[in-house]
Amino acid sequence: MSRHERTGDIAFQQPGLETALRIETSLNAKGLSSGATILVLAALSACGGNDDKIDVPVTPPVSSGPLEAAAQCSVDTLQTAVPSAVLTAASAVTPSTGTAYCRVDGYVTTQGPAATSNQVRFTVALPRSFQARYYFAGEGGSAGYLPEPSASLLSAGYAVAGSDAGSTTPGVDWAFATDRTKAYDYAQRGVHVGTAATQALVKAFYGMSSGANANRRLYRYIDGCSGGGRMGIVAASWYPEDFDGVVAGAPGISVTNQMFFGKVAKYLIDHPDAWISPAQLQAMDAALLQKFDAADGAVDGLISDPSVVSLDATLRAAFTPAQQALLDILVNGMNDFGLTYPGYTLGNPNGWSAFMLGATPPPWSMNPADGRLPPAGYLVFDTTSRGLFGAGYDFASAFSFDDSADVNGWNAMFENVFTGSGTAKAGNLNSFFQRGGKILFWHGTADNGISLNDSFRFFNDLASAQGGQAKLAQVAQLYTVPGLQHCGGGAGPQDVAAQALPALAQWVEAGTAPTQLVANRAAGTSLPSRSFLLCPHPQRAVFKGGIANSAGLNVNDASNWSCQAP
């Protein structure tokens, strides 16, 4: 069986051709109103592709010159380039500002493993002046929408593509997985077939399939955060020939992340007295900052190194015994019947409400008018469980984290249904790296959705698989981002993906690995503008002024920091 076929109890041959979430879209597979996702907007607004985050000035590496269109922007002309897809539209777009482009939309019909077919929709924007760079926007959450092309990337000469990955429910709704064909597409096939179709269209439109530009290389990148980061790692693992470079922000590459959401939600449902209010989290956040701000070598209003933080007896005393038990789960993670997931860092715990705890204690309500919407983590585990076990499945009453059959059965079902997407294995990236592929990981130190510690775990696994940290550094880097919550938000920089992409392109195309990144935070109501020096792990950014800062250096200027080995 080839690596492009499903392994396990169901084998089949796949067809030959293979950031903001649309929160307003209803979770209709569960009968939820569109308002049911209001609470998670802040938590998930940056979890998708970076189509809204990347729209900042981008300076790409020097290329060998732009390409002009070699074909008409029409369905009739371009359909022959993708015989296994159906093009539904092709039209010239001339925005009032920015770059003119040809937008092409279509879909690929997939079959199996269920006795059903599915349509994986895709889109690609083809700029007037093309630098032979292809960008695929990875989507977070449950995918399910077509991203709008980034104006700045189009201006920089990228062809910008995306796909709904075969999902039909944007936001945080995996109930579509009752159709196993849709589940398989979302897991890994959907991105692949969308990629194959859109790359074929790029080559046809610019004459790279034949003619004068036939020998011009197309450089191909995929970029996303959370579920979008997962897309990049899955693509590199299953289809190493599809991309040359991956930007993976806070990648959701472990199924136990979803189980951890469920564990916290179930604990709160069973122990509502353990709920911790947003005000309490804010107070804990302030107390931690006051105590540990200087522990990372700079007094700057941030805890850049959450490993220096701990909850001592004094801090714990502010919480009831039931709340302390919940804190232990949040910080220590899960280790249930062999399934483990590391807990959250304490770099900025005031963000836990949106993802984990909710704005109000349970019982929660799906009716927005009640003002008791559940947190994002509840919705993730609930809709995924319904996708796995049926629309009528209620984990709150049917599932126990004290039952090994429930825990291991859920995990096994996820691995079977979302084939290739449940647990990323470091060794599966060997083919991608051997082909010259490069990966830039980034993850916020205050992430409130996916544990930073899980990225450390995976990066260490990669180092072992590649023969050590020095060898891994030739193909992959990890950047930790001070103060950044899940893909966005918090007191950290908000343009990390925009800075990572050109650095990755320089690495892939010129062989020059980045030695650092500089990311930025705009001025806000309570925070000044700041540039951040980001260093490849295990290096860390060190403030040149030190804690005392007797020289009076500006702590908000990245030039006053340096990357140093641990």
TrEMBL record:
It comes from the Bacteria. Keywords: Calcium, Disulfide bond, Hydrolase, Metal-binding, Serine esterase, Signal. One of its GO terms (molecular function) is hydrolase activity. Belongs to the tannase family. This is Tannase/feruloyl esterase family alpha/beta hydrolase.
